[in-house]
Amino acid sequence: MTENKEPVTRRHFLRDSIWGTCLAGLGGLTGFVVHKHRKTGTLWQIDPYTCIACGNCATYCVLDKSAVKCTHAFSVCGYCRICFGFFGPEPLDITEGAENQVCPTGAIKRRFVEEPYYEYTIDESLCNGCGKCVKGCNTFGNGSLFLQVRHDRCLNCNECSIAAACPSGAYKRVPAETPYLLKPALSEVEGRAGHV
Predict the structure, then answer these.
(1) For a disulfide at 133, which of 33, 85, 101, 156, Cβ 3.0-4.6 Å?
(2) Residue among 155, 136, 125 at smallest CA distance from 35
(3) What is the band of 94 on the pLDDT scale with cuts at 50, 70, 90?
(4) Mean pLDDT, range 130-149, rounded to an integer
(5) By C-alpha distance, which of 166, 115, 120, 113 is closest to 141?
(6) Degrees, nearest 5: CA angle 49-143-42
(7) b/e string for 115-126 if b means 16 or more Cβ within 10 A?
(8) Inter-residue contact 162 to 55 (CB < 8 Å)
């Protein structure tokens, strides 16, 4: 038994090609919508309690200037005269001279408040996410400086190159509704510890 095949005409070829293109386009559109939904459902973020400030955030980001920036929890800060996130562990002098600063880009600004208090702020346009200030603050201070992914810069890559290189597993997917993992005030931490 032989099959009756219709001869392939130009009309049939064009009809089948258009139909195939429409199906491929529909599949691509569906894939894009699913990917976009997944992408906006969760975002990459750094857990400040797991981060070891290894320096990978500055070098592994796909962007020229890393999407990771230093954040300062003012509610945790001691406003110290000698902040080890600003000064090296053994500053030559207690001055704002570059030779005394930990930050290689000068992103941390120091401002006198009143004796003996100083305020430290981050100029995010200068911050490269290296984490040197975070390491100093966590080692010798109270840990008010920590790294966070800035979502106005982050491309939210499906496989984040920084997350893949993170030795402590500090990169996590968080809900887009709560995109930052911030350090609470010391009073909040103490209050939680009392209720455990």
Answers:
(1) 85
(2) 155
(3) confident
(4) 94
(5) 120
(6) 35
(7) eeebebebeeee
(8) no
pTM beyond 0.85: the answer is no
At residue 184, φ and ψ (nearest 5 deg) are -80, 165
Listed residue (188, 154, 185, 172) closest to 66, CA to CA = 154
Residue reference for tokens 């939680």: 192
Mind giving me the DSSP string for 72-84?
A: E-TTT----SS-T
Q: How far apart are CA 111 and CA 96, in angstroms?
A: 10
Tokens describing residue 109: 């600004």
Q: Which helix (H) or strand (E) holds 149?
A: strand 145-149
In the structure, what pLDDT confidence band is assigned to residue 34 with cuts at 50, 70 and 90?
Answer: very low
**End-to-end CA, the chain:** 81
Residue with tokens 């200030």: 133
